[in-house]
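P.,

For your records, the input lines for the assembly:
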Amino acid sequence: MTGFQQPPVGPPWSEDDIADLHAGLFEPGVERELRARMAQDPAASAVLAALDATTEHLGAAPLIPMPTEVAARLEAALAKSAAPKSNVVDLASRRGIKWGAGVLAVAAAAAAIAVISTQGLTTPGAASSQPLALNSAQLRSAVPAGVLGVTDPGPVQDKLTGCLEANNASGKPLGTRQAVLDGGKRAVILILPGGTAGRYRVLVVGPDCGPGTSDTISDTIVG
Amino acid sequence: MAAHAAGDPRAFSDLVNRHRDRMWTTALRTMRDQEEAADALQDAMVSAFRGAATFRAESQVSTWLHRIVVNACYDRLRKKMVRPAVSLEEATHVEPIVGDRTAERDMRFVVDAALRQLPDEQRGPIVLVDIEGYSVAETAQLLGIAEGTVKSRCSRGRLKLAKLLGHLRNQGEPGDVPPDTTPE
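Structure tokens returned:
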């Protein structure tokens, strides 16, 4: 197949024939000849000019900014993908966590995403995942792998709302996970929206966090 | 990319953030629907994340990511085929799209509104060739169709867009292009 078609006869030429010429559907020699003949024809010239203006218009089309909710959704999906590769948590700690593909629902509020699993995701209070082993420094620079999308508030499960309020936070966290910090301190990591796309509030509390007791270990915006 | 390969859990996310608007633009213009574009982009980025080891340093990261997005979009379009294509014949008469916003937003609005009126088989090659700057040969390879088919679909799509964007009037209308031929 050559990709070229038979030359049309004109004038007059149909708009389709002119558009085909413009798109390079004729052999180069035929195209040169047709262009020379169409240049003598105002109707054909006007259509060619319109097609040139169209491709120029398309080529200058500006980028479309990614909506914050889509950015947050991607962030969460990548965080999930990163989790199995983490060196921090061993494989046994992930037993019972089955990441489903395409299970994210996007909340309407900017950066406020809700991560919903249709099956198998760790449920509140479930003892299916071991605490993450982290050092404090890791919590100050990035969202730790294995928290976004997980619901494992451990000792603060029944007092989560009060715990959040005591730390001037509210709403459903984007992820909760029990952790052991610096080799021995029990903690719960709460990931909250950071106010803008790609940013998160990483709130780390102790097991006594509850109504009227913040028990804050660290509270950092990352991203 | 090197940081990602070295195990930095944030590196890939940072990489995606740097290129996100271009990838989003491609996905949205290809898929036409915001939810489907988001799905395709998520497929693409998870695939890219997992396949980062296959990235070859001689190609640009942006090009590599972009191709993965394009492939993910077309995988979805091929698999789903749920949206009835808009037939070109359904709308031989097309009203130019007029916006009233600031220049850049207006231009984007007008172009995207026009693109949404093209059937998938025309919009895809137009987006790749005229907006993304792929060659006809590259586009044919990406879409799995002959080069002549790419040209033909671009030809039909451009003609319709020329009218939608106001560069060409509909045939038969007063003032049809060319307006000033005055036969004796």
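Two observations worth noting. Residues 68-222 of chain A form one domain. Residues 42-59 of chain A form the longest helix (18 residues).

Regards
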